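Please decode residue identities from the backbone states below.
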């Protein structure tokens, strides 16, 4: 792909774009070539995902594959880089908006964008040809799917998460150290964990998590080992951090026993269906705590209790009916991806 032109000369001809970073002893000429020959998959183009994609394009990673199911919303702008108010007004899919910005930053980078959900049916295809996965998701269901795919394909990945002012980073090398399920033997139940929409998120924490996670990923791309094994966690506001040392669990469901809950014929993926004749989608949750979820949602919206169900209306006006048997009716859409996205935001999947 040709560079941005100035007269008859391209940017590449006018200046050596990577001159400063090639001076770094761990990179050099060979390391830069290795980055330019590398391909990464970014699953989720929100807070951490947009940071990762921006950094990857700027340092010259050769191919970037973007996957996201959401559109840009106004509340994204404080912490999700490269998006603009115009994207909000046009209701642009995040993956497409991010793709276009990356192309304007570095025209020599190959960028592919997939608008939709990362799921068991397309995950392996989207991983084709990449050497590393970056987690930019907001739910553990997708993270456990990435974990299983990473093990199956022998593909390293970097887990990242931010909530409030707290961040987590965990580089994962399949069968060479602990996997995500070594750290979390069971998926958190739906509604068990706080989300950014219930307790907030600080932009500075997002930037720091992304910088650490991206650097660990580059170490892997360059053939080096991660700088730590286990889970790095910090609170940027209180300026505290620690590394939780982890070892591979030989009895781990995934990397120890080789059992995959999401890559089977049906898997554990939450079921979704439209409610006939109404602008409503029904999402079926897995195991969750009904009462704990109801109490938590009272802090971020209006809750009306019924018999075997309660209704929740968020501060933004989105409405849900949550049943004690795990069914969630999501009102105001017939789009499966939007319904799952809203459930992940407020309930957690």
């Amino acid at each position: 792909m040709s560079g941005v032109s100035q007269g008859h000369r391209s940017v590449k001809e006018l200046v050596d774009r990577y001159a400063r970073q090639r001076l770094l002893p761990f990179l050099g000429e060979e390391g830069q070539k290795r980055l330019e020959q590398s391909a990464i998959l970014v699953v989720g183009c929100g807070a951490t995902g947009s940071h990762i994609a921006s950094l990857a394009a700027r340092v010259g990673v050769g191919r970037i594959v973007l996957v996201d199911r959401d559109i840009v919303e106004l509340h994204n702008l404080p912490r999700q880089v490269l998006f603009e108010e115009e994207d909000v007004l046009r209701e642009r899919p995040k993956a497409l908006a991010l793709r276009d910005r990356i192309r304007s930053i570095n025209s020599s980078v190959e960028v592919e964008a997939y608008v939709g959900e990362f799921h068991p049916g397309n995950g392996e295809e989207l991983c084709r040809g990449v050497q590393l996965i970056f987690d930019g998701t907001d739910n553990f269901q997708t993270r456990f799917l990435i974990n299983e795919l990473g093990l199956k394909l022998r593909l390293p990945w970097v887990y990242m998460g931010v909530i409030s002012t707290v961040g987590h980073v965990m580089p994962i090398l399949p069968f060479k150290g602990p996997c995500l399920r070594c750290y979390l033997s069971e998926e958190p139940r739906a509604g068990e964990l706080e989300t950014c929409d219930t307790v907030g998120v600080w932009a500075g924490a997002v930037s720091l998590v992304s910088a650490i996670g991206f650097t660990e990923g580059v170490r892997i791309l360059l053939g080096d080992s991660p700088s730590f094994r286990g889970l790095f966690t910090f609170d940027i506001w209180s300026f505290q951090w620690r590394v939780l040392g982890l070892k591979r669990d030989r009895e781990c469901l995934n990397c120890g026993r080789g059992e995959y809950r999401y890559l089977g014929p049906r898997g554990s993926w939450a079921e979704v269906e439209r409610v006939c004749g109404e602008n409503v989608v029904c999402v079926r949750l897995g195991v969750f705590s009904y009462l704990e979820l109801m109490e938590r949602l009272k802090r971020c919206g209006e809750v009306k209790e019924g018999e075997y169900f309660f209704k929740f209306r968020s501060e933004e006006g989105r409405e849900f009916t949550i049943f004690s048997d795990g069914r969630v009716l999501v009102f105001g859409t017939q789009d499966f991806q939007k319904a799952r996205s809203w459930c992940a935001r407020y309930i957690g999947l």
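Observation: The first strand starts at residue 5 and ends at 6.
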